[in-house]
């Protein structure tokens, strides 16, 4: 069976990996001209660790893992006002048990698949027409091809979703903010800490460790109602305006933004799609379910979702009419659990006023104080609401093929 996957981020290559193992013929189409670098540290938590083990890429992940010590809120002068150290949440907080740069993880997944799988970079789907036997796909480049199934793994603003399911506004909820990530020369030693400075007006300036201590992954995030789609130059101009005079390392980040080759900007959005498939077309990862970086489990959901989707396709011998609903049934409790937003959402995390910022820091100090730590660790350490089925057709294929 020929299966087209749209999107070569995390979910797309992970699915391609399992499909190829099971004897399907996946093709991946990616809008970007080449593998996309960039992003900050993402986490591989709980059951997603097991998936990474089963894929046989844990060694590669461990070689490139980051060793972050936690999240520290700092004042404009750099002094720490509150902190969430990794160890008190036992890996369940904003810094998880295995942290890896998003670009590194994407590269590992591409390395594990690109020898055997066709990747079409610099192209995208413009039309999908399905009938009883397959899906006729038209590409932006003008070519037309036929596939048995199509998977939308093309992120929050999924093209497959808008072509086959409906308008983005039906499925994507704007949570009231925007975020941008890019690499800069580090303005100060971070010593393993992700540092966040909150400026009044609901603005965050962050610096997160890179492998090379001379560099940092900058974060600029701000509260805002939904804006029209902006081009990269407009996004940068907006950031420069929003963060002018914000303090701490905002000016440094704005100066470095122009030269960064991994600039990324997006809304903080949640994706809820009631039914993840339409006939022969199915959604995976952020395209189908996403709690936003605020909820913070996007990578784990993608890795687990890819495993379950491929597994159910093998269990039903490629019969999508049974496999797609089974994939959703299996994943839904886990998705509901891991797309839940932290209490207070952006309003709590990114206060508008100096008083709000002081209150947030005080409550962070209280929550992380000794008497509250067991409760906090318990809340953060809730087990995943899914158990991985073995799916012998994909997992045993791995053992026999090495
Ligand atoms: C460059 C980048 C940096 C990121 N940085 C962070 C971060 O620092 N922290 C965080 O929590 N999350 C980040 N994310 C989001 C995070 O990767 C996802 O939440 C999560 O890993 C789920 O992965 P995904 O594969 O579903 O989506 P994504 O990782 O978003 O991948 C989707 C892929 O689809 C491609 N695509 C989009 N439209 C089309 C189209 N029309 N046709 C073909 N391909 C298309 C995109 O270029 C991308 O490669 C980032 C995403 C990207 C793309």
UniProtKB/TrEMBL annotation:
Keywords: Monooxygenase, Oxidoreductase. InterPro entries: FAD-bd, FAD/NAD-bd_sf, FAD_aromatic-hydroxylase. Residues 2-316 form the FAD-binding domain. SUPFAM superfamilies: FAD/NAD(P)-binding domain. GO terms for molecular function: monooxygenase activity. This is FAD-dependent monooxygenase.
């Amino acid at each position: 069976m020929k299966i087209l996957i749209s999107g070569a981020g995390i979910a797309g290559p992970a699915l391609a990996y399992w499909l190829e193992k099971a004897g399907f013929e996946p093709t991946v189409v990616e809008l970007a001209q080449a593998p996309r670098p960039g992003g900050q540290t993402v986490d591989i938590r709980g059951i997603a660790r097991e998936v990474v083990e089963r894929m046989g890429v844990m060694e590669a992940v461990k070689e490139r893992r980051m060793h972050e010590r936690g999240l520290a809120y700092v004042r404009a002068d750099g002094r720490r006002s509150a902190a969430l150290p990794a160890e008190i949440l036992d890996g369940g907080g904003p810094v998880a048990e295995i942290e890896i740069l998003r670009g590194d993880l994407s590269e590992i997944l591409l390395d594990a698949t690109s020898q055997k799988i066709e990747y079409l970079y610099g192209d995208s789907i413009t039309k999908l027409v399905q009938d009883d036997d397959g899906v006729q796909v038209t590409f932006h480049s003008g070519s037309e091809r036929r596939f048995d199934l199509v998977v939308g793994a093309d992120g929050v603003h999924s093209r497959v979703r808008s072509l086959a399911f409906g308008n983005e506004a039906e499925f994507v909820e704007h949570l009231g903010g925007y975020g941008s990530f890019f690499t800069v020369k580090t303005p100060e030693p971070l010593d393993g800490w992700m540092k966040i400075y909150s400026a009044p007006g609901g603005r965050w300036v962050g610096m997160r460790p890179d492998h090379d201590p001379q560099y940092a992954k900058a974060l600029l995030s701000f509260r805002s109602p939904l804006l029209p789609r902006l081009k990269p130059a407009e996004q940068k101009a907006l950031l420069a305006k929003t963060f002018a005079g914000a303090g701490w390392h905002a000016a440094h980040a704005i100066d470095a933004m122009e030269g960064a080759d991994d600039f990324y900007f997006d809304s903080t959005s949640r994706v809820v799609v009631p039914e993840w498939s339409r006939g022969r077309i199915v959604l995976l990862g952020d395209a189908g379910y996403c709690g936003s970086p605020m909820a913070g489990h996007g990578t784990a959901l993608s890795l687990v979702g890819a495993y379950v989707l491929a597994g159910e396709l093998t269990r039903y011998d490629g019969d999508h009419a049974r496999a797609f609903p089974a994939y959703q049934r299996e994943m839904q409790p886990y998705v509901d659990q891991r797309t839940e937003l932290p209490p207070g959402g952006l309003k709590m995390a990114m206060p508008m006023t100096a008083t709000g910022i002081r209150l947030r820091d005080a409550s962070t100090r209280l929550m992380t104080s000794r008497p509250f730590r067991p409760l906090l660790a318990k809340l953060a350490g809730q087990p995943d609401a899914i158990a991985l089925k073995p799916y012998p057709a994909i997992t045993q294929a791995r053992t026999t093929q090495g």
